[in-house]
Design brief:
Layout: H1 9-30, H2 36-46, H3 52-59, H4 66-70, H5 73-93, H6 97-103, H7 106-125, H8 132-161, H9 167-171, H10 173-188, H11 200-205, H12 209-217, H13 225-231, H14 235-246, H15 252-267, H16 273-278, H17 283-297, H18 301-314, H19 320-345, H20 347-371, H21 378-395, H22 400-408, H23 414-443, H24 447-465, H25 474-502
GO molecular function, one term: D-glucose transmembrane transporter activity
Subcellular location: Membrane
Pfam family, one: Sugar_tr
Length: 503
């Protein structure tokens, strides 16, 4: 088999094991939504704000009284904190991705942070033993802190061990595992499974289950050869790791590529956050990386999920929760399609198709929302727009930003770049989550026009500024930006000379 295209059992196990962290990330994202009313009830009970009248109303025998209890400001505050604290934890810990990844290596780094996930799962799973609102909030904060780390460590590790020919496909595994985790949480969160009055702590506690399995499998996974060779200078260990990952094939090209990257890394000083932000050498790559992550979160994908159940209800779907699960299933199917296409069609092409398609769907969504009270069939336009919007998202803008950052930077600045991009992602996610209800109240059915404008802007930016990284080595990708920078510098110097001459 051709060098660079070798897929071995060890590589499959390593990617699967790392992706368990992404599965846990997705599960934690989706698990809190389904049992919202039940959790609010238990918060109210713990705060002494629950009565028999409220109990009757939640069980459906009465319609009055529940809003006064469940919508109590303290209950709303604790519930909002339970949701928002997850993103805050991720925002804080995303800055530590590079430190944790370099401290003991990618594999041991993932193993270390699993302690956080298991502790968070125990806090939420045992929350009935004390004050559920306090224990759930603590558990969500710790789980968010864990997910901020794992959402950087997983793409970093997979990007460094993947053969060049399959780097895109394996890079999308992070997003695929995330959407599978969301779908699993939606399914087992149904009231007749775990999303009920008795079992909801177990539903939340299962957030830590993938960490247990991952902890058992990580010792079987080889460390990143790039980490061993470029950061630690351990050539023989890197060679053994490569041999385990690629099997009995010629490793000369891989070792030569890492040698060149190490020489380049040795010539430059250790890249800190401040150096990365202010250095003109990395400015273009960093700007592209941050814009890719902003395009993911400011696309309106979370708003679509926010609206979906209400739109399905208005369209006459008797069980809108199942339609929402259908959206999750489409999420997964089209992420699988991205895995197949990303190394054939390319990162840039798929991102452009995805963002452009989402822009058109956002316009269709606006039309459907505006006229669905006048024409009943417009509800189905809205439904179709939701499914297509999610499909286009998972073709490119969903999975690609997570791994393209690792491709845009060499070994030296890569951990800091992944950390900054992750922080940008978590921060914009938090801002959209907090601001969307106000934007919705302000713009009403025109809210998706705002996202359409943003999507159009991101599409133009990526068309003009983002290079194709398919099939290129890390060294070749860095050279693209260096060439652009050199051309820009030369043009500036020529212009300056011309100005001086004219003077």
């Amino acid at each position: 088999m051709e060098t660079g295209k070798q897929i071995t059992g060890t590589l499959v196990v390593a990617v699967f094991t790392a992706a368990l962290g992404s599965l846990q990330f997705g599960y934690s994202l989706g698990v809190i939504n389904a049992p919202q009313k039940i959790i609010e009830k238990h918060y109210a009970m713990a705060l002494g704000m629950w009565s028999e009248r409220s109990e009757l109303s939640v069980n459906g025998t009465k319609k009055n009284g529940s809003s006064e209890t469940v919508k109590n400001p303290y209950v709303v505050m604790y519930w909002s904190l339970s949701v928002a604290i997850f993103s805050i934890g991720g925002m804080v810990s995303s800055f530590l991705v590079g430190f944790v990844g370099d401290l003991r290596g990618r594999v041991k780094g993932m193993l270390m942070v699993n302690i956080l996930a298991i502790a968070a799962g125990l806090l939420m799973g045992l929350c009935k033993m004390w004050k559920p609102h306090i224990m759930v909030i603590l558990g969500r904060a710790i789980m968010g802190f864990y997910c901020g780390l794992t959402s950087g460590l997983v793409p970093m590790y997979i990007g460094e061990i993947a053969p060049k020919a399959y780097r895109g496909a394996l890079g999308t595994i992070h997003q695929l595992a995330t959407v599978i985790g969301i779908l699993i949480s939606q399914i087992i969160g149904l009231d007749f499974i775990l999303g009920n009055d008795e079992m909801w702590p177990l539903l939340l506690g299962l957030s830590g289950a993938p960490a247990l399995l991952q902890s058992l499998l990580l010792p079987l996974c080889p460390e990143s050869p790039r980490y061993l060779y470029i950061l630690l200078g351990k050539e023989q260990e890197a060679r053994r790791s490569l041999h385990r990952l690629k099997g009995a094939c010629d490793l000369t090209l891989d070792l030569e590529e890492m040698k060149r990257e190490k020489e380049e890394a040795d010539r430059e000083a250790r890249v800190s956050f401040r150096s990365l932000i202010f250095s003109s050498v990395y400015r273009k790559q960093l700007f592209v990386a941050l814009m890719m992550h902003l395009s993911q979160q400011l696309s309106g994908i979370n708003a679509i999920f926010y609206y979906s159940t209400a739109i399905f209800s208005q369209a006459g779907v008797s069980q809108p929760i199942y339609a929402t699960i259908g959206v999750g299933a489409i999420n997964t199917i089209f992420t699988l399609l991205a895995v197949v296409l990303v190394d054939k069609a390319g990162r840039r092409s798929l991102t452009l198709i995805g963002l452009g398609g989402m822009c058109c769907c956002a316009v269709a969504m606006t039309v459907g929302l505006k006229f669905q009270n006048h024409f009943s069939w417009m509800s189905y336009v809205s439904m179709l727009a939701i499914f297509l919007f999610v499909s286009f998202f998972e073709i490119g803008p969903g999975p690609i930003p997570w791994f393209i950052v690792a491709e845009l930077f060499s070994q030296g600045p890569r951990p800091a770049a992944i950390a900054l991009a992750g922080c940008c992602n978590w921060t914009s996610n938090f801002i959209i989550g907090m601001a969307f209800p106000y934007i919705q109240a302000w713009l009403d059915c025109y809210v998706f026009i705002l996202f359409a404008v943003l999507l159009f802007g991101f599409t133009v930016f990526i068309y003009l500024r983002v290079p194709e990284t398919k099939g290129k080595s890390f060294e070749e990708i860095a050279a693209i930006f260096q060439k652009k920078r050199k051309t820009s510098t030369d043009n500036a110097e020529l212009q300056q000379l011309k100005t001086s001459s004219d003077a």
